[in-house]
Specification:
This protein has 904 residues and is an alpha+beta fold. Helices cover 22% and strands 30% of the residues. Strands 21, 22, 26, 27, 28, 29, 32, 33, 34 and 35 form a ten-stranded mixed β-sheet that branches. A seven-stranded antiparallel β-sheet has the order 37-43-44-45-51-47-48. Strands 4, 5, 6, 8, 9 and 10 form a six-stranded antiparallel β-sheet that branches. A hairpin with a 2-residue loop joins β14 (179-184) and β15 (187-188). It is globular, with a radius of gyration of 29 Å.
């Protein structure tokens, strides 16, 4: 039986206040617009504002007011717009004034009310700048060097201009079909990589904004632009037909350099016929394979003033790739780490293999001296042959070469001679841990000749775990490494073999991503890709963005439920409903399509439990579970958005699906599902398909199944999302932990024991196929740490961790565990340690302007002490999923601050 104890907070109020550190003076901090700090070039018509607060001494926000002005002082007055008092307990507000003007900087402040009289105003006055706000505001033309998609050499462009007056501000806005690097007066602008982000180019293009005031000078100036192919002009004959994409064309761009002078006048330097172009030393570039560079073709100073461009040719005009050119309002891809080789092995006079400490996504940078014309090849891979050379066999399965001129993951650099040369690819990235360097003549190569540059969308880390189990720690680090290596403006499956936005991989790992990283802007961008790719009947492809492939195979609710699962989880974790609202009609069309082809309430449209260990689950079983989940999310979204008729309709639909599912697959006599293996039992439990009266029985059946499998996994992709969670949420965390901490096959720990630093694509480490060593598809375990052990959950009724649910568990065999998550209101920490004799110390931190419910499992004969005081209260009783006389769960409502719970 379970007993619930409710703590009388008034009795401990004094204790709470004395334990809150650094909160004696209330203040607001971390103010953001569109979830970005001081963004420039935004296109949002109704920008969102978020903030955090501290020092409220246990009180919570009851209302807010936002003010906007042309200066910080005007913002505090709300001169341009004032929201007025908005009664809301949530720390997110939305602009609702007159249309914002393009190319304008606005400052804003937030006033926070804690009751009818007391309020606090943000001391900082952040800003946001608007961008183009539509095609009509562009002044430049789309230009390129030709229309030849088969021209391999990358084009360069330049324009010289003069500044004749005193400059106040300068902004560069650049939209590109392909990839680019932008230079002003010889210096590369910004620290982004692989801009702009990949989209469905014939339906939506992104432009990037820069503040370039400090990069310009009085008098002569020069702009340089180098274009790469990216996914726009796919050069390699690869899987999924990207070389046949309907948008394919020679890279092109449009640019406006907007100059505001101190006298109030404005001038725009734009792309047009007065630009010049020439071919560059980048003689080949493919986002899929590699980059080739011939340094002999360099033209020093090409992007600077005083360069003679008389031999350069005239540009050609091109049509815009689409009529929808919008701001790239997301976290950019950046260099995030530099790795030096852990060792270098010389195979012969012209072949060296560099071993790096871990598997990454990114590029390498070569520093080398040698004679003119020397050719260096850099082959990047994840594995080694027996002779120590780099082996590509595990990731080359989808490579479709038409000749030897485009080797897979192999950069080719031709030296110009005359001193040390440095080469780094601009328009490509790879997945690798080992690099084989070969040259056509001997060179002096040292361990420091090659460094590895790790790249990914530069999302802020907001989650952390640590435990007394070294394997758990390694798995968590490897999971995060794979998640980041597969975040390049959209979530991918792997950074080497495909680089595609596989939907199933992404929704399985969504909670892992949201617990560990602030990735909302990446997901908002990717859901816009979903809207671009959805067909009028609601069907989505299996990979997004796509060249047109994926509408006939591998899609279906078990994969493309991203359309519902991503917005719903973002809402739960952030409290921001914008993504649900933006995608509501798309979710609806998708669910309606499944209903149209599934008159029985069940659907067999889908791929199924991909890469299982041994058992196979019917596709209809797993796809119908996701169909139910999509319908349920749709009904909840309808209620949230006040669409009452839709709420009733889709709530009824979800119940109809659930009834049909249980009628066919549930054996109530034996309390079993679909043969009683791990995937069907765990998915039915996790996605709440099981009739309430049978939940305990099905949970025990799952536990029995795992015991028969010797506490090891027997699941594929879909089962991996459910199995640990289904056990933990039904009082069997001991068993879940046994699975999660295994060190032999099949398990995550098995990979770690064999040297993995990222997650693999297959439980088998010697599989004949499906053996990428950097896949995120089995990455749910990274979220389970926060849920099953740390017990940190958002509350659907008060999302964004406004109300934190803390339900930790203390499995046998694990002595210590700590999890923390920086949510929308601040840091949440959940840390426990066993002290012997069954005693446990549990420390909690709850951020300001939020509250929490702590639920603790307590063994018979033990009592709970809260901040040193033994708790008491009202007892309730309910049935546990694991009947155990005398054991109970104690529940506490707690306010912001630091808390210590002792079970002894």
């Amino acid at each position: 039986m379970v007993r619930y104890h409710f703590l009388n907070l008034m009795a401990l109020l004094l204790v709470i206040n004395t334990r809150v550190k650094g909160q004696s003076v209330p203040y607001l901090y971390d103010l953001r617009c569109e979830h970005l700090e001081n963004p420039i070039g935004i296109d949002a018509e109704k920008p969102r504002f978020t903030w955090k607060s501290s020092g409220l001494n246990g009180r919570e926000q009851v209302a807010y007011e936002i003010g906007i002005g042309a200066t910080p002082a005007e913002a505090k007055q709300g001169k341009l717009w004032k929201s007025g008092r908005v009664n809301s307990k949530y720390n997110i507000g939305e602009y609702n004034g007159k249309a914002l003007q393009p190319f304008t900087r606005y400052y804003y402040t937030v006033k926070l009310f804690v009751d009818d009289k007391q309020f606090y105003v943000s001391q900082e006055t952040p800003f946001f700048e608007t961008g183009m706000y539509g095609q009509q505001n562009w002044r430049g033309s789309w230009i390129s060097d030709s229309r030849d998609v088969n021209q391999k050499q990358a084009p360069a462009f330049r324009k010289a201009f003069k500044l004749k007056k005193k400059l106040l501000n300068a902004r560069a806005y650049i939209a590109v079909a392909g990839l680019y690097e932008l230079y002003l007066n010889g210096k590369r602008i910004g620290d982004h990589r692989l801009d702009p982000m990949y989209t469905r180019f014939d339906r939506r293009n992104l432009y990037v904004s820069y503040d370039v005031t400090k990069q310009l000078q009085q008098g002569d100036n020069a702009i340089g632009v180098l274009l790469g192919n990216g996914w726009y002009n796919h050069q390699s004959t690869a899987v999924w037909f990207f070389h046949e994409a309907p948008w394919r064309g020679r890279p092109a761009f449009c640019m406006d350099l907007r100059l505001e002078y101190e006298d109030g006048s404005v001038e725009t330097v734009s792309t047009g016929k007065d630009w010049k172009t020439a071919l560059s030393p980048v003689v080949f570039n493919s986002i899929y394979t590699a980059e080739h560079y011939d340094a002999r073709k360099e033209q020093p100073g090409w992007n600077n003033i005083n360069f003679d461009d008389k031999k350069w040719k005239e540009v050609v005009y091109r049509a815009a790739p689409s009529t929808n050119i919008v701001s790239q309002q997301t976290v950019p891809i950046k260099d995030v780490d530099t790795l030096r080789a852990s060792k270098m092995v010389k195979l012969n006079d012209s072949t060296y293999v560099f071993h790096f400490p871990r598997n990454i996504a990114g590029v390498t940078e070569l520093s080398v001296k040698g004679p003119e014309g020397t050719v260096v090849r850099l082959k990047h891979g994840e594995d080694l042959n027996k002779d120590g050379s780099v082996d590509l066999s595990n990731i080359i399965v989808h490579y479709r070469p038409v000749g030897k001129s485009d080797p897979f993951q192999t950069d080719i650099y031709t030296l110009k001679g005359g001193g040390e040369e440095v080469f780094r690819p601009r328009f490509n990235y790879k997945g690798f841990q080992y690099v084989e360097l070969t040259s056509n003549q001997p060179l002096k190569i040292t361990e420091g000749s090659l460094i590895a540059c790790s790249m990914h969308s530069a999302v802020e880390p907001i989650g952390n775990i640590r435990s007394s189990d070294s394997v758990l720690n390694k798995i968590w680090a490897a999971t995060n490494a794979s998640y980041l290596a597969n975040l390049y403006g959209y979530p991918t499956d792997c950074p080497q073999r495909e680089k595609n936005g596989w939907t199933g991989d992404a929704h399985i790992a969504i909670e892992t991503g949201l617990y560990n990283f602030d990735g909302i802007t990446v997901y908002e961008k990717w859901m816009a890709d979903h809207r671009d790719e959805q067909q009028s009947n609601g069907v989505l492809p299996a990979i997004i963005p796509t060249s047109g492939w994926g509408y006939e195979w591998a899609n279906g609710p078990d994969w493309t439920s991203t359309i519902a699962l991503i917005p719903w989880n973002v809402y739960l974790f952030t409290g921001d409903s914008r993504l649900l609202a933006d995608n509501y009609e798309n979710i609806k069309r998708y669910v309606d399509h499944i209903s149209a082809i599934s008159p029985t309430g069940l659907t067999d449209w889908g791929l199924g439990d991909w890469v299982p260990v041994k058992s196979k689950t019917p596709v209809e079983f797993t796809s119908s579970v996701y169909y139910y989940t999509d319908a349920l999310i749709l009904s909840k979204a309808a209620k949230l958005l006040k669409k009452d008729a839709d709420h009733k309709k889709y709530a009824a639909l979800s119940q109809r699906i659930k009834d049909a599912f249980n009628k066919k697959y549930f054996d109530s006599v034996n309390v079993n599902y679909a043969g009683g293996t791990q995937t069907p039992l765990s998915t039915a439990l996790y996605w709440e398909m099981v009739p309430e009266a049978y939940v305990s029985g099905v949970a025990e059946k799952l536990a029995e199944c795992v015991r028969k499998d010797s506490m090891h996994l027997d699941v594929g992709l879909l089962g991996s999302k459910a199995v640990l969670n289904a056990l933990s949420q039904n009082d069997r965390t001991d068993i879940a932990y046994r699975i999660a901490s295994q060190r032999n096959y099949p398990s995550w720990g098995w990979w770690m024991e064999n040297g993995a630093t990222t997650l693999y694509e297959n439980w088998k480490i010697d599989a004949g196929k499906d053996l990428s060593r950097n896949h995120i598809m089995f990455g749910e375990i990274g979220a389970w740490y926060f849920k099953g052990l740390g017990g940190i959950f958002p509350d659907e009724k008060e999302p964004g961790f406004k109300h934190v649910l803390l339900k930790p568990d203390f499995p046998e065999g694990l002595d210590q565990f700590a999890a923390s998550h920086k949510g929308p209101y601040g840091l949440i920490s959940s840390a426990w340690k066993k002290a012997g004799n069954g005693n446990i110390t549990y420390d909690v931190i709850i951020p300001g302007n939020s509250h929490a419910t702590v639920t603790l499992p307590v063994r018979k004969g033990k009592a709970v002490y809260v901040n040193g005081i033994q708790s008491g209260g009202i007892a309730r009783h309910s049935q546990m999923n694991v009947p155990s006389m005398g054991n109970y769960r104690a529940e506490y409502k707690v306010e912001p601050g630091s808390w210590r719970f002792e079970i002894k």
